[in-house]
Write a structure and sequence with these properties.
Structural class: mainly alpha
Largest sheet: 3 strands, antiparallel
Number of domains: 1
Distance between the termini: 13 Å
Order of helices and strands: HEEEHHHHHH
Strand order of the largest sheet: 1-2-3
Helix content: 25-40%
Number of helices: 7
Strand content: 5-15%
Length: 173
Amino acid sequence: MATGCRVNEILRAKWIHFDFEKNLMLIPAEHSKNTNNHHVYLSEFALRQLSQLHETRTTEWLVPNRTGDGPVTRQVLTKQVTDRQQDVGVKGRVANNHSLILPNGKWVIHDLRRTTATLMQELGILPHIIKKCLNQKTEDKIMETYQRAELVVQQREAFEKLGDFLWRFPMLA
């Protein structure tokens, strides 16, 4: 949620895609839905979470599969989330089958990305900056053609605001 990345972008991420000194994550064009390279400007919150994962890494992948020779697949991750949102668990599947149940019901992984956009909007970030942060194309083809600025400063500020908000939740920090 701190990066606003698509599930497949995170699952394809390798540690070489992160620059901890510049607080930056690169999503290569071949991993991006819109086939453009994209930089995610990591907040201090995101950087801390990623640094903790980096310290315990065992493979080149951010989210490795069991054997460590590739990333976890979307299907496996989806199943792991779904299995932890069951009122009654299937014996032998997971120890805590209700650990991810939320008051408003079941959720899917993509809801985290939607939540990122909503939180940014609630924090006063303008819609065109949110689109840049999430690497979304605009529906307006003229704007897409003529307005190509990266708005790096605004994106960094947006991710920092989001990170500052996420620090407020002890279970995330």
